[in-house]
Design goal:
The protein has 211 residues and is an all-alpha fold. Helix content is 80%, strand content 0%.
């Protein structure tokens, strides 16, 4: 019983945010009740949940070959997506009078992941006893969880930056634009670096053969 109380105490704010997002995020930022370790734990649970779902969900709802799934690649992809989104949002909101710090954005996004943590693993287990006709229920629950996750992110950004709904929508759209620009620049730099390495290698080979 004591262990259950400790777990509920540790996870109390994410659960409260899931039910009452605006007041929950207000407590997280302005009453200093948000903890980075809870946010990191929530994100790690999401990584585990996604990997578990991709590997163990029934063939009724998952057509991917489990042998081709690499959990480390999935973890790196999710981590990269989190960092890119938070950096993009921080960059945009710094120019639009946002009050949230980078750490506030990270915690808000990670705290918003609670619906995914609570639904993906149970639904993955349930998928193994569902028939083809009942697969629609699986997709409905997963869709609701993802939608609620997106709404919680929006609520969190509204609260931590102290924006109106209209301004928050604008900054979210600009965040995705900034994210695409960052991805483009990273891809361009990697391509240039690859070309530079190939040039140096070919130059070295040419010099070796001529000498």
């Amino acid at each position: 019983m004591t262990m259950v109380k400790r777990v509920l105490s540790f996870y109390a704010l994410p659960l409260r945010i899931m039910v009452r997002p605006f007041s929950g995020f207000y407590e997280m930022k302005y009453e200093k009740r948000g903890l980075l370790r809870v946010a990191v734990f929530n994100f790690l649970m999401v990584c585990i949940s996604v990997s578990f779902m991709n590997q163990y969900s029934s063939i009724v709802v998952n057509q991917r070959n489990p042998r081709t799934i690499n959990s480390l690649v999935e973890f790196a992809t999710l981590t990269g997506a989190l960092i890119l989104f938070c950096v993009s949002n921080w960059a945009v909101t710094s120019l639009t009078d946002g009050e949230g710090r980078f750490i506030d954005i990270v915690m808000a996004v990670c705290y918003a992941m609670t619906p995914i943590v609570l639904t993906f693993i149970p639904m993955t287990i349930l998928s193994n006893v569902l028939t083809v006709d009942e697969g629609a229920f699986y997709f409905m629950v997963i869709s609701v969880a993802v939608f609620w996750f997106a709404f919680l992110i929006f609520s969190g950004l509204v609260t931590v930056h102290n924006y109106s709904a209209a301004k928050a929508i604008t900054t979210v759209l600009l965040t995705f634009v900034a994210l695409l620009i960052i991805v483009f620049l990273i891809t361009l730099l990697l391509t240039l670096w690859q070309q530079l390495v190939l040039f140096i290698r070919s130059l070295y080979t040419e010099i070796v053969f001529r000498v």
